[in-house]
Design brief:
The protein is built from one helix and seven strands, in the order βαββββββ. The chain has 100 residues and is mainly beta. It has one domain: Elongation Factor Tu (Ef-tu), domain 3 (Beta Barrel). It has a four-stranded antiparallel β-sheet. A three-stranded antiparallel β-sheet has the order 2-3-5, with no helix packed on it. A hairpin with a 2-residue loop joins β2 and β3. The relative contact order is 0.31. This is Elongation factor Tu. It comes from Neisseria elongata.
Length: 100
Amino acid sequence: MQCHIVWDKTWFADKGRPCPNPVACTLYTQLHLPDGGWSVVLEFSDTPPALPSGENMAEKVYFLVESAPHELLQPGFTFDFMSGGHTVGRCTVIAPSHSG
């Protein structure tokens, strides 16, 4: 699955920082559920699609451990991108795009 991220521009502006523009890297965040927290991995390609400022597309999204609730990562599932206890973005899982 892929993941569309919309960063909280206000949060980054208040910190005097630009929104992330991840290219050819891996980012991690936490998904907090009533039964516990899970590490989520977002992998970005070296040629990301062009999106509006403050938005990114992760090529892959998955849980770090096998015992995580993998069934949640289906198209339409949304979760917060957390950093240091703050919500800094909103993530939406989408089906991979296929070029034909």
